[in-house]
């Protein structure tokens, strides 16, 4: 479904991502794990067209997308849940969700999908007309996920969905990620909580300083002594 080849991204002469290649197959949850500064967020931003690529190709469903602007990439079926949630704080929950469907025309379908989001996240329904900036961190994460789902993505890019959340909410968010995947959406997940990420992923890539150093089935990596020591606290 998604193939990234020889991707490199630099910021002011400093290489954030160095010649990496990987793929995501349809129906999978694929995790990118690694320490802060490993290049995980940059990879997602490069796929979404949010940062300039020094070199490399990104192909989605057999179509090259590495030179496309972000709105065209969304229209093709890739949606991005950014690090730090990035909701529009002065706009209501409902308005944030409507923005997620900005490229769609069928109002009836948009409203039906909004109800599906509210069914998945009842707290958002309770706060439908409330400014997004007044929501708790967990509620804002729900809204960021819901907003991304409003574009009906085939591939969902998720950047640190558990960041800053209480353990109980972390569990809830990961259960939601699993549900979204089971409903037919492929997921590329960036997550510092390696234990939770490997627990729900099919496969994973381990990054260090912009390079992929390990790859394999998620369960195998969870048992890898190197991964255990560096990322699982064992």
How would you sum up the global shape? globular
Spatial strand arrangement across the major sheet: 6-7-8-3-9-10
Helix content: 25-40%
Contiguous uncertain segments of 5+ residues: none
Architecture overview:
There is one protein chain. The protein is of the alpha/beta class and about 230 residues long. The chain has a domain at about 1-85 and about 150-230: P-loop containing nucleotide triphosphate hydrolases (Rossmann fold). Helices cover about 40% and strands about 25% of the residues. It contains ten helices and ten strands. The radius of gyration is 17 Å and the shape is globular.
What key phrases describe this protein's structure?
single chain, 10 strands, 38% helix, 234 residues, six-stranded mixed sheet, alpha/beta, Rossmann fold
Brief rundown of the structure:
It contains ten helices and ten strands. The relative contact order is 0.19.
In terms of topology, how is this protein built?
Elements (H helix, E strand, L loop, with lengths): L1 E10 L2 E11 L4 E5 L6 H8 L7 E6 L2 E2 L5 H7 L1 E4 L11 H8 L6 H14 L1 H5 L10 H13 L5 E5 L7 H16 L3 E5 L3 H7 L2 E6 L2 E7 H5 L2 H7 L3
Parallel strand pairs: 3-8, 3-9, 6-7, 7-8
Antiparallel strand pairs: 1-2, 1-4, 4-5, 9-10
Helix pairs in contact: 3-6
